[in-house]
Amino acid sequence: MRMVVLVSGRGSNLQAILDAIEDGRLAAEVAAVISDVPDAYALKRAERAGVPTYCIEKRDYSSRADFETALADCAEGARPDLIVLAGFMRVLGEAFLDRFPGKVINIHPSLLPSFRGLEAQRQALEAGVRYAGCTVHFVDLGVDSGLIIDQRVVRVLPGDDVETLSARILEQEHDLLVDAIRRFGAGLV
Ligand code: GAR
Predict the structure, then answer these.
(1) Which mutation among 18, 135, 170 tests ligand 1's pocket best, with the greatest number of atoms within 8 A of CB?
(2) 85 CA to middle of ligand 1, Å?
(3) How far apart, in Å, are the Cα atoms of 10 and each of 15, 19, 41, 145, 183?
């Protein structure tokens, strides 16, 4: 299974995928990593693993559709079976998604459908929920609204702040994402 991973930042979820492949826990290949942020640390992780990297910045295009078309052209060049949004911080529209129907998944740090969009962990703390978590879902035209593939639950502990809660959710994200990719590859999703 050939994957393209889209990133915008730190890339710890990308690293979890690369580590799982390296350890033989995931029978797949990361064919390309594409970032919309030039200095995303995720690009360094990809380079270290010998994965081709690309950077496509929104500001170089006059419209969202043109940006997404460039992104889709770049992704298509790697002939992906699956596209993984791993900390990719933009909402994608038709110009991208129509090119890869049923092949784009995202990881989000909340128990969807609660707390869509940015700063999901902060939203959970502010809502006072006792259980938070993370979700892998198919990407549709809405914000974090596509079909849910799987989730993990994380207890909110007394005294948690955004940093401590995010760190515990992130641990679960890494495991959840690798597991969801494995199941997608096995035709179980
Ligand atoms: C992760 O917590 C991921 O769930 C979140 O950004 C972080 C990226 O971390 N994504 C979103 O909030 C998307 N709406 P990483 O770069 O270390 O994988």
Answers:
(1) 170
(2) 9
(3) 9, 15, 5, 24, 25
pTM summary value: 0.97
Mutating to test ligand 1, I would choose from 173, 174, 181 the residue with most ligand atoms within 8 A of its C-beta, which is 173
* Per-residue confidence in pLDDT tens, the chain, 189 aa: 999 999 999 999 999 999 999 999 999 999 999 999 999 999 999 999 999 999 999 999 999 999 999 999 999 999 999 999 999 999 999 999 999 999 999 999 999 999 999 999 999 999 999 999 999 999 999 999 999 999 999 999 999 999 999 999 999 999 999 999 999 999 999
Ligand 1 pocket, CB under 6 A: 9-13, 42, 86-87, 89, 107-109, 120, 170, 173
Cα separation of the two ends of the chain: 14
Which residue matches tokens 């559709």? Answer: 65
174 is catalytic: no
